[in-house]
Design goal:
The structure is a single chain. By secondary structure, this protein is mostly helical. The protein is elongated, with a radius of gyration of 31 Å. The N and C termini lie far apart (about 90 Å). The relative contact order is 0.06. The mean pLDDT is about 80.
């Protein structure tokens, strides 16, 4: 028995491809079902914040004269 993928015959290559395809579909299906199945109100909404009046914040008590 040779354990090299280079010297494997066509049926072995097809088996490897089939197993990889089935595993990929299974992982994708599990990911989609886990994402859509556990919706517990975790939706995100956009909030709009309007700018108010300008505010000046300083660390000194000196008054500003303009």
């Amino acid at each position: 028995m040779n354990h090299s993928i280079y010297s494997a015959d066509r049926s072995t290559h097809l088996k490897v491809v089939a197993v990889a395809l089935v595993a990929g579909i299974a992982v994708a299906g599990f990911g989609i079902s886990a994402r859509t199945g556990s919706d517990e109100g975790l939706t995100q909404t956009a909030r709009v914040i309007k700018a108010g009046k300008p505010v000046v914040i300083t660390s000194s008590n000196a008054s500003l004269v303009r």
